[in-house]
Amino acid sequence: MENAEFNLKCLKTIDTKQGAVRAVRFNVDGSYCLTCGADKKLKLWNPHKALLLKTYSGHADEVLDACSSCDNSQIVSCGQDKSVILWDVSSGTPLRRLRGHAARVTCVRYNEESTVAVSGSQDNSIMCWDVRSRNMKPIQVMREAKDGITSLAVTDHEIVTGSVDCKVRRYDIRANRLFSDFIGDAVTYVSLTHDGQCLVVSSADNMVRLLDKESGDLLAEYSGHHMGDYCMESCVDNRDRHVLSGCIDGDIWCWDLVQGTVTSRLTHDRGSVVHSLSFHPSQLFLLSASHGSIKLWGVPEDEL
Amino acid sequence: MSSDSEDEDFAEYGTPLDPLDEDELPKKKPFTLKDQVAADKYGRRRFHGAFTGGFSAGFFNSVGSLEGWTPSTFKSSRSDRAKGMQQKPEDYMDEEDMDEFGIAPKVLRATSDFNESSKKRSRMHQLSDGPIPGEPALRELLQPVKETVGMKLLRKMGWKPEQGTGPRLTKLEKRRMKEEYKRTAVKVYGCALPRDANKEEESGKDSPCSTDDEDDAQLSFAPDDLGPILCKPKDNSFGLGYKGLDRRPILSSHIDLFTPTPLRMEEKNKKVLITGQAFGVGAFEEDDEDIYGREDMSQYDFSLDTETTTSKQKHQITATAFANYAGNILIGFVLGTNAMTQKKHFPPPVLPQGFQPMHVLRKSRFEPAPSEKASLSKEKQLLKSRTRGLERHNLTATDRALILDESTPQVTVQKDTMTSATLEENKRLPTEELKIKEKLEISVKEGCSQFRPFVAYPEKQKRYEQYLTLSKVGQKDRLSYIQPLTMTEWEKERERVEFEQAARLYQPLSGVMSDRFVLASQPDDLSTPLPSVSKAVESDSEQRAAAKLKMFGRLTRQESDWRPCSLLCKRFNIPELYPGSDESSKATQKTSSNFSVFSFLDAASYNTALKIPESSDEPINDIPSAAEFPEVTAKQELEVEKDDTEANTHNIVSQEQKFDDSLLEFPDPPAKIDLYRAIFLSSSEDSDDESEEKASGNLTKANNSKQNVPQEGGETEEKTLSLEKLLTPSEKNTERNMSPPRGVFANLDLDAINARKEKSNKVPEKKEESDVCKNKQTTIDDHVEREQNDGLEQLAQDMYGPQLPSISVSATANSTSLPSVKKVLPSVVTSVHNEWVEITKKDSHKNRHGKKHKKSSKHKKHKHKKKRH
């Protein structure tokens, strides 16, 4: 009966026209989305209407990740040009260009209140930028990782990072502790469940794992898909019932979170890699990106 | 008629002029302006200004006039260009210029032949012609001899060339004159021939005609042409004695080939020669005495036969030299008369070993002394040559053989040819050397260094590794035993220096870099530029195995301390756990804030620093057993003891602070309290004050109780105490969001928990807290419990923000202690407490039942959610 509800259909297909879409991200309330293009541009969309709202250009190379602030007034993006750019949403101008990383910046996230931007880079470091002040230097740099950072997740009191050195590191600001969990293979993506208790970890060994955040215990494993050499993203649905991951054959695999069984496979584009996923924070909407197109998945209104 | 009478007195001569009328009196004619103006023959004004001798300005003084200066009308030469119009300077000149006083007067003048200036001008034109630049020499030589006016006049007076001037003389007189002249003109110094002999000769010559001549006494002859004797007028403006180049044409003057150059001196076996062109003494000449004295005693020889003797000696020498020559003389060749002077050969000095042909300047006084630097520079040169690809010079025979795939030259062969000294060495070597070598071989195999600076030379690398092991033992000087005998001393020394350098360079880095780089599993191969590097790191092996077995959790987890900087905490709305440590974190931050490659290199050292405090894999929330944490508990004991001693030594009031300091290392707790009060406690100030009072009061108790603690030695209690330390700050969190619970907490009945809590919180007033405490304590010692509360109170003053997750430990350790803590809290924090309860529940649950139960609980949770939806 759950699965019946989780019956996603492609609602919209948008050709972003920005080369390859490196990442697609919902904003905080899920009404808009951002696409990071290989054409050095960042685009703001209304995915529900397939409307292009704004294009942000200013990166010197491919944009790799972006995150919008909690009040939707700012966007922070990062790219291959080693810089993190803070954008003003309405004017489309870059407010700050934060340079500090020595290699491409692969991921960036705001904290809960959008006061700090946390960026992870190929140079094995994570940098925390104070976006409130005019400080152009990182307020803190974490260099514990032994290899490139692939993904980040930030909660109200912790920063979770996934790195190619096979580890998921959780910096607990409250406890002043660093917990690092060894995952069998290079970690491609880390996200948190909505209850904040579990980590969804994609690793290069074609496996998505659900780990208990506190203890690091393995709660479930989801397999069957193929990651290839891609930095495949994964996510959980808005109610923490399903785990979703991209696949190199163009499918989006959905597993039941508890049972670990494959519930459905959504075909984005046969033959092309679906590497970026973003689930709506509160509703049944999924965004997937493959090549130059993004797709909005959801339950059609007439079926509801 | 007096006038008449007067008139009559005068005699009149000539005819008088007509008497002038008074009107017609000649007036002095004033000069008109016209008269004063110089004009040319056409009446045009010549000069400007009153007295000026200025030239006419412009074309006919037209400058300054109304019409100004107008040039002559332009005539285009385009149509008749072929004519080759010759422009002369006269075309541009006025007539006046051609006048006698003009620029180019056209009056009778000496022709250019006789005009020095005009000649020069014409010469200038021709200078550039011909292959040889400059004045043509022949022209100068073949210039016609000019007859001066004086000669012409003399000729007219009957003079002929070759004749002297003056009155005619008789023969006798003439002869006398000649003699006289000779006496004065020719100076003879030193030994001269007797004059008589000369006379006789002359007289003998003249004798045949003398008889005839004496007869003709009447006959007179023109005097001989004898040059003026002594007085030579100085006709130049040169310095005395200096003779410049003769300006006169060569043929006109007498060329004297035989008289010596004007000045020649011999002084101290040095010939000083002064000729015309230049004069004076240069900066490099010795001195300039007697330059002007033409006659100098040094000019004269004082001994007669110096010249001859020297020449004689020379001859003798040559004779002897060639007399000794016994070889066959080639046909067509003759024995030389002059022997070649053999140059004395000076062998170059023997250079000391290690001599450097270049002087290396120290750039600053902080640089190492040149002697030290010598070795360095040698090294540098070596490196330089290597980088330039001139390595080939450093190749030894064996190396070359290796490259060329030849069989290596046998060292034994060289041994045979070695001198006895080295042979002796050889004898000594085998015993010692072999021992060392064997030892080293083993140690090297163990793998002493991962860096191989001399991989290109396997032999050398081997030696280097051996050297490293030697240096570890402290026997660096034994390197010479390892080095092959084929090496020269200098090479050995150089290698030693090289090794030293390499050891210094690579050793400390290896530690820093080792965890950054993975050693290549296979040698570099050109065909596969990017061989796959195995990701396996040895330290990970255990974790890897655990991950393979899906034993995630304890085995794969590592925990370490990590300090977020204060600003990060602030931005995350999280209280700093260690506010005192802010400076240190800032300092490290400052160093890393500026972007540099080195900061990334440094990361390795950060990592190691972080690793050190890393505790074992057990997460903190597990129930600690005494056996598992022997070290930790010991540490805590120590801490507590330390606190005790401090508490004993100080009075109560200061103790309050001290206690804080020792516990959490706050640098300035009073300030913190004030700030906290100002911001958060404005509404409930009274209660806070009260609690503070109580805190100080309780502290005395706490101290008493503390002294008991170590004696009791309850490990679990201490554990909880230490955990309470961590837990306490969050207890007063008023900042936490009060939004309805989400996620995991969505299912919780918060109201019920609150109610339960309120039940336990029967007595919310803190005054009665201690009493309540007594009631509640069931398993834990009374004193300890109270101390906990005290500590909690203390910390609560300095802390705010959300609670810490580690609280769960204490909860699991002793579930009954929970309400006692809760009781102290103001009711505002309830939601936080609920969270706390939930976690512990979950944790305990999990620990009891393991993974599967966890899953099931999750499942349940979802179901709950669904129901609500």
Automatic annotation (TrEMBL), chain A:
<keyword id="KW-0853">WD repeat</keyword>
<dbReference type="InterPro" id="IPR020472">
    <property type="entry name" value="WD40_PAC1"/>
</dbReference>
<dbReference type="GO" id="GO:0000398">
    <property type="term" value="P:mRNA splicing, via spliceosome"/>
</dbReference>
<dbReference type="GO" id="GO:0005737">
    <property type="term" value="C:cytoplasm"/>
</dbReference>
<keyword id="KW-0963">Cytoplasm</keyword>
<feature type="repeat" description="WD">
    <location>
        <begin position="56"/>
        <end position="97"/>
    </location>
</feature>
<dbReference type="InterPro" id="IPR019775">
    <property type="entry name" value="WD40_repeat_CS"/>
</dbReference>
<keyword id="KW-0677">Repeat</keyword>
<dbReference type="Pfam" id="PF00400">
    <property type="entry name" value="WD40"/>
</dbReference>
<feature type="repeat" description="WD">
    <location>
        <begin position="98"/>
        <end position="139"/>
    </location>
</feature>
<feature type="repeat" description="WD">
    <location>
        <begin position="14"/>
        <end position="46"/>
    </location>
</feature>
<dbReference type="InterPro" id="IPR051980">
    <property type="entry name" value="WD_repeat_MORG1"/>
</dbReference>
<dbReference type="InterPro" id="IPR015943">
    <property type="entry name" value="WD40/YVTN_repeat-like_dom_sf"/>
</dbReference>
<dbReference type="InterPro" id="IPR036322">
    <property type="entry name" value="WD40_repeat_dom_sf"/>
</dbReference>
<comment type="similarity">
    <text>Belongs to the WD repeat MORG1 family.</text>
</comment>
<protein>
    <recommendedName>
        <fullName>WD repeat domain-containing protein 83</fullName>
    </recommendedName>
</protein>
<dbReference type="GO" id="GO:0071013">
    <property type="term" value="C:catalytic step 2 spliceosome"/>
</dbReference>
<dbReference type="InterPro" id="IPR001680">
    <property type="entry name" value="WD40_rpt"/>
</dbReference>
UniProtKB/TrEMBL annotation, chain B:
<feature type="region of interest" description="Disordered">
    <location>
        <begin position="684"/>
        <end position="786"/>
    </location>
</feature>
<protein>
    <submittedName>
        <fullName>G patch domain-containing protein 1-like protein</fullName>
    </submittedName>
</protein>
<feature type="compositionally biased region" description="Polar residues">
    <location>
        <begin position="697"/>
        <end position="710"/>
    </location>
</feature>
<feature type="compositionally biased region" description="Basic and acidic residues">
    <location>
        <begin position="196"/>
        <end position="205"/>
    </location>
</feature>
<feature type="compositionally biased region" description="Acidic residues">
    <location>
        <begin position="1"/>
        <end position="11"/>
    </location>
</feature>
<dbReference type="InterPro" id="IPR011666">
    <property type="entry name" value="DUF1604"/>
</dbReference>
<feature type="region of interest" description="Disordered">
    <location>
        <begin position="70"/>
        <end position="138"/>
    </location>
</feature>
<dbReference type="Pfam" id="PF01585">
    <property type="entry name" value="G-patch"/>
</dbReference>
<feature type="region of interest" description="Disordered">
    <location>
        <begin position="640"/>
        <end position="666"/>
    </location>
</feature>
<dbReference type="GO" id="GO:0006397">
    <property type="term" value="P:mRNA processing"/>
</dbReference>
<feature type="region of interest" description="Disordered">
    <location>
        <begin position="836"/>
        <end position="869"/>
    </location>
</feature>
<feature type="domain" description="G-patch">
    <location>
        <begin position="146"/>
        <end position="166"/>
    </location>
</feature>
<dbReference type="Pfam" id="PF07713">
    <property type="entry name" value="DUF1604"/>
</dbReference>
<feature type="compositionally biased region" description="Basic and acidic residues">
    <location>
        <begin position="77"/>
        <end position="91"/>
    </location>
</feature>
<dbReference type="InterPro" id="IPR000467">
    <property type="entry name" value="G_patch_dom"/>
</dbReference>
<feature type="compositionally biased region" description="Basic residues">
    <location>
        <begin position="843"/>
        <end position="869"/>
    </location>
</feature>
<feature type="region of interest" description="Disordered">
    <location>
        <begin position="1"/>
        <end position="31"/>
    </location>
</feature>
<feature type="compositionally biased region" description="Basic and acidic residues">
    <location>
        <begin position="754"/>
        <end position="786"/>
    </location>
</feature>
<dbReference type="GO" id="GO:0005634">
    <property type="term" value="C:nucleus"/>
</dbReference>
<dbReference type="GO" id="GO:0003723">
    <property type="term" value="F:RNA binding"/>
</dbReference>
<comment type="similarity">
    <text>Belongs to the GPATCH1 family.</text>
</comment>
<dbReference type="Pfam" id="PF26093">
    <property type="entry name" value="HTH_TGH"/>
</dbReference>
